[in-house]
Design a protein that fits this description.
mainly alpha, Rhopdopsin 7-helix transmembrane proteins, binds zinc ion, about 65% helix, about 5% strand, elongated, single chain, 2 domains
Length: about 425
C-alpha cells in the first residue's frame, strides 16, 4: 500500500523532498509511505484536525494524544534549517494515525449500513403487516389447496393470514368461519360459567364423587367447544397450524362424547357395579381409539368428511348398548326423573345424529351453492346442534342424579 501525504508549502524547510518510509503499522501490514516533507506546524495542525474531526471521540482523543509536542520531535529553534532528528518516528506515528482514522471511518460506514438495513427490514415488516391487516375475503378457487374445504361455499373465505394476531382479529370480521367461531365460542363460555357455578358455588347434595362425575362432563364440553373455537379461529394461519388445531378439534369431540356417556353410566347403573365398570372401560377404550384416529393426518382431509362423521356417530351410538341394557333392567317409566332423563337421552341422540348428518352431507349449502356462504351453512348448524345436545344431556344426567341422590335407599337395601 502506498499512501501519499501531499503538502506543498514548506515554510521552514524551504524545499520539497520526497521520502519513502517502510514501517509496520497497527493494521498488521507493512506499508511504504511516500511523503513530501512539510512544515511541522502545518503537519501537526492537519493531523490533529483530521483526528479530532472523527465522530468517534474516544478514538480521536486517543489519536490526538499520540502526537507529541512539536518541540520534542522537531527542535526547529535549535537546528533550523537542518532536518529534524525524529522525522522518521513522526512519519511512522502519522501512518498509525492514518490507519486508525481509516478503521474508525470503516466502522462508521459499517454502522451506517447496518442501521440502513435495520430500517429497511422494519419498513418491510410494517408494509407486510399493513397488507395482512387489510385482507379481503376471497373466492373458494382463490384459496390455496390446504384451505379448500367446502366448495359449496363460494365466496367469503379468509385468505391465509400468517399471524395469530390477524387470525384473532378476524373473529370480528364477516367470513365463512365467523358463525363457526361464535357459535362454539359462546357455547364454551356458557359451559365454563355453568361448570364453575355448579362445582363451586351452587348448593346441592353432591358428594366429591358426584362433582368428579359432573366435572368429567363439563371438562369434555369445555374442551370440545374451546378447541373448536380455537381451530376455526386460526385454521387459516398455515397448513401446520390448521392441521394441529383440527386434530385438537376432533379430540375435543371424542372427549365430549366420553364425558357425556360416563356420567350417564354412573347414575344409570348406580347400584350395578359390574355393568357400570364394564361400560365405562368400553367407552374409555373407544375414546382412546378415536383420539388415535384423530391424530392421523389424513383424518382431517376434506375427502374424509363422511369417515369422520361415521366414526363420531358410531362412537356416540356405542351408548345404545348400555342404554338398551338399562331400559330392560330398570323400571324407568315409573319415575318422573327417570322418564325425563330417558326423554333427554332420546332428544340428545336425535340432535347429535342430525348434526352429524348435515355435517357429512353439507346440507343446506349442497342445495343452495353460494347462498349460505356466511350464515346457515351445515357447519354452523352442526355447531348449534352440538351445543343444544350437550345442554339437553346436562339436563338428562341432572335428572338422573337427582333421582339417585334423592333416593335415600342404599344400594344394599334394594
Ligand atoms: Zn367445527
Amino acid at each position: 500500500m502506498v499512501a501519499s501525504f501531499q503538502k506543498s508549502s514548506i515554510n521552514t524547510l524551504g524545499s520539497h523532498r520526497q521520502r519513502s518510509i517502510i514501517n509496520n503499522n497497527n493494521c498488521g501490514s507493512t506499508t511504504t509511505t511516500t511523503v513530501e516533507e512539510i512544515s511541522s506546524d502545518e503537519w501537526f495542525q492537519s493531523s490533529k484536525t483530521a483526528t479530532l474531526k472523527s465522530t468517534d471521540t474516544k478514538l480521536a482523543k486517543e489519536s490526538a494524544d499520540l502526537l507529541p509536542n512539536s518541540g520534542d520531535l522537531f527542535p526547529w529553534d535549535c537546528y533550523e534549517p537542518s532536518e529534524p532528528k525524529n522525522m522518521d518516528s513522526a512519519y511512522e506515528q502519522l501512518c498509525q494515525l492514518h490507519c486508525r482514522a481509516t478503521k474508525a471511518a470503516a466502522h462508521q460506514v459499517e454502522d451506517l449500513v447496518r442501521r440502513a438495513y435495520e430500517k429497511r427490514d422494519s419498513a418491510e415488516a410494517y408494509v407486510r403487516q399493513t397488507i395482512q391487516d387489510a385482507w379481503n375475503v376471497c373466492h373458494f378457487h382463490h384459496l390455496p389447496k390446504w384451505l379448500q374445504d367446502n366448495d359449496y361455499l363460494h365466496t367469503g373465505h379468509r385468505p391465509p393470514l400468517q399471524s395469530f394476531k390477524a387470525c384473532f382479529w378476524s373473529v370480528f370480521r364477516k367470513h365463512t368461519e365467523t358463525g363457526n367461531i361464535w357459535t362454539h365460542g359462546i357455547g364454551f363460555l356458557i359451559f365454563l360459567v355453568l361448570s364453575l357455578y355448579k362445582l363451586t358455588v351452587a348448593s346441592h347434595p353432591w358428594s366429591l364423587m358426584d362433582k368428579a362425575i359432573f366435572g368429567a362432563f363439563f371438562l369434555g364440553a369445555v374442551l370440545c367447544l374451546g378447541f373448536s373455537t380455537f381451530y376455526h379461529t386460526v385454521s387459516c394461519h398455515s397448513p401446520q397450524v390448521g392441521r394441529f388445531f383440527s386434530k385438537l378439534d376432533y379430540c375435543g369431540i371424542a372427549l365430549l362424547i366420553t364425558g357425556s356417556i360416563i356420567p350417564w353410566l354412573y347414575y344409570a347403573f348406580y347400584c350395578d357395579y359390574y355393568p357400570k365398570v364394564m361400560y365405562t372401560v368400553l367407552t374409555t377404550t373407544l375414546c382412546v381409539i378415536v383420539i388415535i384416529l384423530s391424530l392421523w393426518d389424513k383424518f382431517s382431509e376434506p375427502s374424509y368428511r363422511p369417515v369422520r362423521a361415521t366414526v363420531f356417530v358410531l362412537f356416540g351410538l356405542s351408548g345404545v348398548f348400555p342404554g338398551g341394557h338399562w331400559l330392560i333392567s330398570h323400571n324407568w317409566f315409573s319415575d318422573v326423573s327417570l322418564r325425563a332423563s330417558f326423554i333427554c337421552l332420546i332428544i340428545m341422540a336425535v340432535l347429535y345424529l342430525s348434526g352429524a348428518l348435515l355435517y357429512a352431507c353439507r346440507i343446506p349449502e349442497r342445495f343452495f351453492p353460494g347462498k349460505c356462504d356466511y350464515w346457515f351453512h351445515s357447519h354452523q348448524i352442526f355447531h348449534i346442534l352440538v351445543i343444544a345436545a350437550a345442554m339437553v344431556h346436562y339436563r338428562g344426567i341432572s335428572e338422573l342424579a337427582l333421582h339417585r341422590l334423592s333416593n335415600t335407599q342404599t344400594c344394599d337395601a334394594r
